[in-house]
Amino acid sequence: MLKSITSDQLETLIQFKADVQVLDVRKKPAFDDDNCLAEGAEWRDPTSLDDWAGDLDTSKPVICYCVHGHQVSQDAARELGRRGFDAYYLRGGFDEWKHRSAPLMSKG
Fold first, then answer.
1. Is the pLDDT of residue 99 over 90?
2. How many CB atoms are closer than 10 A to CB 15?
3. Based on the structure, what is the number of domains in the chain?
4. Which single residue of 13, 51, 72, 99 has CA 20 to 30 Å from 90?
5. Coil/strand/helix, residue 42
Protein backbone atom coordinates (compact mmCIF):
# COMPACT_ATOMS: atom_id res chain seq x y z
CA MET A 1 0.00 0.00 0.00
CA LEU A 2 1.30 3.42 -0.98
CA LYS A 3 1.59 5.79 1.98
CA SER A 4 1.43 9.57 1.92
CA ILE A 5 2.10 12.47 4.24
CA THR A 6 0.68 16.00 4.24
CA SER A 7 2.70 19.21 4.17
CA ASP A 8 1.55 19.91 7.74
CA GLN A 9 2.83 16.54 8.92
CA LEU A 10 6.17 16.95 7.15
CA GLU A 11 6.62 20.46 8.51
CA THR A 12 6.04 19.14 12.03
CA LEU A 13 8.63 16.40 11.49
CA ILE A 14 11.16 18.97 10.27
CA GLN A 15 10.34 21.40 13.08
CA PHE A 16 10.96 18.73 15.71
CA LYS A 17 14.02 17.43 13.86
CA ALA A 18 12.59 13.94 13.43
CA ASP A 19 15.01 11.39 12.06
CA VAL A 20 13.59 11.12 8.54
CA GLN A 21 15.12 11.22 5.08
CA VAL A 22 13.47 13.83 2.86
CA LEU A 23 14.15 13.35 -0.84
CA ASP A 24 13.45 15.86 -3.58
CA VAL A 25 12.79 13.61 -6.57
CA ARG A 26 11.70 16.29 -9.01
CA LYS A 27 12.89 15.57 -12.53
CA LYS A 28 16.15 17.36 -13.28
CA PRO A 29 14.64 20.16 -15.44
CA ALA A 30 12.09 21.03 -12.74
CA PHE A 31 14.77 20.91 -10.04
CA ASP A 32 17.14 23.06 -12.12
CA ASP A 33 14.41 25.67 -12.74
CA ASP A 34 13.98 26.32 -9.00
CA ASN A 35 16.39 27.94 -6.58
CA CYS A 36 15.35 26.10 -3.43
CA LEU A 37 14.19 22.85 -1.90
CA ALA A 38 12.42 21.81 1.28
CA GLU A 39 14.47 22.29 4.42
CA GLY A 40 16.63 19.24 5.06
CA ALA A 41 15.91 17.64 1.68
CA GLU A 42 18.41 16.14 -0.73
CA TRP A 43 17.82 15.98 -4.47
CA ARG A 44 17.94 12.51 -6.00
CA ASP A 45 17.46 11.86 -9.69
CA PRO A 46 14.28 9.80 -9.95
CA THR A 47 15.55 8.15 -13.14
CA SER A 48 18.51 6.60 -11.31
CA LEU A 49 16.85 5.25 -8.16
CA ASP A 50 18.78 1.99 -8.54
CA ASP A 51 22.03 3.94 -8.18
CA TRP A 52 21.19 5.76 -4.94
CA ALA A 53 18.61 3.65 -3.08
CA GLY A 54 21.39 1.65 -1.44
CA ASP A 55 22.81 4.85 0.09
CA LEU A 56 19.68 5.38 2.19
CA ASP A 57 19.23 4.20 5.77
CA THR A 58 16.57 1.49 5.89
CA SER A 59 15.94 2.21 9.59
CA LYS A 60 14.67 5.76 8.89
CA PRO A 61 11.45 6.72 7.11
CA VAL A 62 11.84 8.22 3.63
CA ILE A 63 9.61 11.02 2.35
CA CYS A 64 9.70 11.74 -1.39
CA TYR A 65 8.35 14.83 -3.08
CA CYS A 66 8.09 15.97 -6.68
CA VAL A 67 6.46 19.05 -8.18
CA HIS A 68 2.81 18.10 -7.68
CA GLY A 69 2.91 14.93 -5.57
CA HIS A 70 1.78 12.71 -8.38
CA GLN A 71 3.55 10.12 -10.46
CA VAL A 72 7.25 10.86 -9.87
CA SER A 73 7.18 10.93 -6.07
CA GLN A 74 4.57 8.17 -5.87
CA ASP A 75 6.66 5.91 -8.11
CA ALA A 76 9.79 6.60 -6.04
CA ALA A 77 7.98 5.94 -2.75
CA ARG A 78 6.37 2.80 -4.15
CA GLU A 79 9.73 1.41 -5.33
CA LEU A 80 11.49 2.28 -2.06
CA GLY A 81 8.64 0.59 -0.19
CA ARG A 82 9.20 -2.53 -2.27
CA ARG A 83 12.83 -2.43 -1.22
CA GLY A 84 11.92 -2.46 2.47
CA PHE A 85 11.84 1.24 3.28
CA ASP A 86 9.11 2.94 5.28
CA ALA A 87 8.43 5.28 2.35
CA TYR A 88 5.90 8.07 1.82
CA TYR A 89 5.13 10.64 -0.86
CA LEU A 90 4.22 14.24 -0.07
CA ARG A 91 0.61 15.02 -1.02
CA GLY A 92 0.44 18.20 -3.07
CA GLY A 93 4.18 18.07 -3.75
CA PHE A 94 6.64 20.92 -3.69
CA ASP A 95 4.10 23.35 -5.19
CA GLU A 96 1.89 23.02 -2.13
CA TRP A 97 4.92 23.12 0.17
CA LYS A 98 6.03 26.47 -1.27
CA HIS A 99 2.47 27.84 -1.45
CA ARG A 100 2.02 27.41 2.30
CA SER A 101 5.39 29.05 3.06
CA ALA A 102 6.85 25.93 4.62
CA PRO A 103 10.58 25.92 5.46
CA LEU A 104 12.88 26.16 2.45
CA MET A 105 16.62 26.19 1.92
CA SER A 106 18.66 27.50 -0.98
CA LYS A 107 20.32 25.06 -3.32
CA GLY A 108 24.09 24.75 -3.13
1. no
2. 11
3. 1
4. 51
5. strand
